[in-house]
Specification:
alpha/beta; Rossmann fold; Dehydroquinate synthase-like, alpha domain; 6-stranded parallel β-sheet; 9 strands; binds nicotinamide-adenine-dinucleotide; binds zinc ion
């Protein structure tokens, strides 16, 4: 069976396109009482970007903190805050920030129209009702969260996305100028998330011409960004992120993402850096990708944390292995149908012990 999938219907791209956000939203301000909620990564509070938000009277500015990756409990609190602010549903939610702020915006827009806790919807196609209109403005490029049908959340029992067609943004505004000011390490880690999406998609057993077309272009752009010098490298990285997201949308990620989920669940390691840490130990599975990744690290003088798992209890190590191996489609994409024979608990544990 082929999957029939939705994508983001409206996209604006270009330097300064953020200036048109007000016009885009105006079409969705349906009545005198309608209001927008601006979900803004709190790193921008007091910065010029905050002053550039096209706020209208009645709109809500909702700063969000992403020191921890989004948790279901945090989403539930934010939804309650919006309901307390105004009993009427907002006309739109605008998420401004990196993958974390974008995922928060997605999850809020879903939970405003679906009852219960966000933890109830972690899984595939559990969302019943269409979301509130929601828009993304990425300020960090690489995750592909702007184009994906998931909002990744850490819940009480698992780290798993709310995957549904309703999760997709209705509109994205890709303005490369907003990437200015990202700290270099973060720029690299999130950019490598994209590079690793490409490598895992292109080298997986689920690969097909659709995913290959997007993955190859994304990989080419990543090489230009991380191995060459270009004045428009922010434009390139923003499109690499989008194309990488489109590639995995119709294939899958692989071993590195599975292992990074274990690191994240047990140690709270963030997605981009977690992918970098895991990828560096996967030379057996992705030899060319890992070699090129190391050249990119060297070129940008990036060093990764080591000995992360050295002091961990057996129980914590086993939980990490279980978390990683539960991601069946990722392993099947990476190693094929007989992946369980190849990636035993012992082999997985041995990889984690090296980290
Ligand atoms: P992030 O959103 O967690 O942000 C990382 C740091 O960069 C934060 O401190 C943030 O405040 C800061 N930041 C963001 N933009 C900035 C800017 N322009 N200037 C200065 N600082 C800035 O990082 P990320 O790597 O983009 O996202 C990771 C998150 O995305 C994780 O929660 C992960 O689970 C999620 N994710 C989602 C998908 C998806 O498809 N939905 C895919 C991959 C990752
Ligand atoms: Zn990723």
């Amino acid at each position: 069976m082929y999957r029939n999938f939705s994508i983001v219907p409206k996209i604006m791209f270009g330097r300064g396109s953020f200036n048109q956000l007000g016009d885009i939203l105006a079409e969705h301000r349906t009545g005198p009482d309608s209001y927008m909620v601006f979900v803004l990564d709190d790193v921008f509070i007091g910065k010029p970007l905050e002053g550039r938000l096209p706020l209208q009277p009645g709109d809500m500015l909702l700063p969000v903190n992403v020191d921890d990756e989004p948790k279901t409990s945090y989403i539930d609190q934010l939804v309650a805050k919006i309901r307390a602010y105004n009993g009427v549903q907002p006309a739109g939610i605008v998420g401004i920030g990196g993958g974390s702020a974008m995922d928060i915006a997605k999850a809020i827009s879903l939970l405003l129209t679906n009852p219960g806790s966000s933890a109830d919807y972690q899984g595939w196609d559990l969302i019943k009702n269409p979301s509130v209109y929601h828009v993304a403005v990425p300020t960090l490029a690489g995750t592909g969260a702007e184009i994906s049908r998931t909002a990744i959340l850490t819940g009480p029992v698992k780290k798993l996305g709310i995957n549904s067609d309703h999760t997709l943004f209705h509109q994205i505004v890709l303005d490369p100028l907003l990437l200015a000011g990202v700290p270099k390490d973060q720029w690299f880690y999130t950019g490598m998330d994209c590079y690793i999406h490409d490598i895992e998609s292109l080298n997986g057993t689920y690969i097909n011409e659709f995913s290959k077309a997007y993955g190859e272009k994304s990989l080419e752009l990543c090489r230009q960004v991380f191995l060459e010098d270009h004045p428009d490298s922010d434009d390139k990285l923003m499109m690499a992120s989008y194309f990488g997201g489109m590639s995995i949308a119709y294939s899958q990620v692989g071993a590195c993402h599975a292992l990074s989920y274990g690191l994240s669940y047990v140690l709270g390691v963030h997605h981009g850096i977690g992918c970098c840490i895991a990828f560096d130990y996967l030379e057996d599975i992705y030899p060319e990708g890992v070699a090129e990744f190391r050249r990119m690290m060297a070129r940008h003088d990036i060093s990764l944390p080591r000995n992360l798992t050295a002091g961990l209890s057996d129980e914590a190590m086993q939980l990490m292995v279980t978390t990683a191996l539960n991601l069946v489609p990722l392993w099947e994409n990476c190693l094929g149908k007989d992946w369980q024979q190849q990636m035993t608990r012992e082999r997985c544990l041995a990889i984690y012990r090296r980290m």
